[in-house]
Amino acid sequence: MNQVGIGIVGAGGIASAHVKAYQQMASARVVGVVDVDEERAQAFARRYNLPFWSGEDEDLLRREDIHIVSLCVPHHLHAPLAIKALQAGKHVLVEKPLAISLEEADAVTAEAQRANRNLGVVFQLRYEADVKRAKLVLERQLIGEPFYAEIHCLWWRRPMYYEVPWRGKWATEGGGAVINQASHHIDLLVHLLGLPCEVNATIDTIAHQIEVEDWCLATMRWDDRLRASFCAATCAELENDSSRMLVLGTHGTIQMFPFRPHSRQESRLVQIADACREIPDTEVSGHTAELHDFVRSVQEGRPPTVSAHDGRRALELITAIYQSAFTGEPVALPLDVNSPCYTTAGKLETARRYLSQRAKRT
């Protein structure tokens, strides 16, 4: 495939990052955009000099010159639109999260396998050189055996952020600070340390008039030794958004945001430095790197670097956090189809009971 045709579904803010990244590639051509707001779709097409726009996704999906569809739509539309695009024979890249439930994630993945099409999810931190360096340091056990981790996503969102109709609701956003803002942090945690075996979580809504959480605190356990503390918030009026990840090992540490590996053992510090030099700085990172990789994966007939499997693993941990917070009980992983939050309906019903109990307490 010489030139790959791209279609963008959704003309909101994140769609600009997608079209700009694709337009940097000579081997990719953004054919058009679709949005339920036709005027927004038309304005987007004019802004980025796209030949086609529409208010109906069917108009885009029936085009033979579109091979990849980028989904930049509200969370609850990710799964149904991904399935629709896959059934139309398109490769699909979904903004995070992959879906709002594991049931939906599994349905999308099954459709991608049936259609023999690539399905990816946007976790752009994976493409940062420092994340690759941290992964290599941990794989080589250069800080020894990890025994504790912290990960914080402490951000602020103004009340007007939740005036967008689909935000702040379990049925359409699928959650709040955890599934939206902290998705990338959770993916990074699972990418570096694997999926924990147990989660115990608390959520609350402190600063906004919304259904979903704007604060979460969770503890996680991998085995009898490795533990982690996780905090996500969109309610604290910080001077700047703050992200932090720390992994403590028996012979050293790794910090992220910014990346700082360390060991007091000189020989290990030298090994860490040597390993980090094996990973060159990248000319292209973030969204641009991931979208370019997805295009190349289609051209080369290989899976994308960040696959639907990766998106599901992050969603599984997110689901366990919510289930624990809803029920007040620790949750064991992996989850299965009998989990009360596995299906979309089950998750929403469990959330409804949680909201009812919360209302009684207040």
In short:
By secondary structure, the protein is α/β, with parallel strands linked by helices. Helix content is about 40%, strand content about 20%. Helix 5 (about 100-115) packs antiparallel against helix 11 (about 310-325).
Task: Tell me what the structure shows.
It is a single chain. The chain has helices at residues 13-22, 38-47, 57-61, 78-87, 102-115, 129-139, 177-181, 183-193, 266-277, 286-300, 308-327, 344-361, and strands spanning 4-9, 28-34, 52-54, 68-71, 91-94, 119-121, 146-154, 198-204, 215-221, 227-233, 242-249, 252-256, 260-262, 331-332. With 362 residues, it is of the alpha/beta class. It has two domains: 4-124 and 286-304, NAD(P)-binding Rossmann-like Domain (Rossmann fold, 3-Layer(aba) Sandwich); 126-282 and 313-361, Dihydrodipicolinate Reductase, domain 2 (2-Layer Sandwich), CATH 3.30.360.10. Strands 13-12-11-7-10-9-8-14 form an eight-stranded mixed β-sheet. Helix 1 crosses helix 10 (286-300). The radius of gyration is 21 Å and the shape is globular. The N and C termini lie far apart (60 Å). The model has no long low-confidence stretch (mean pLDDT 96).
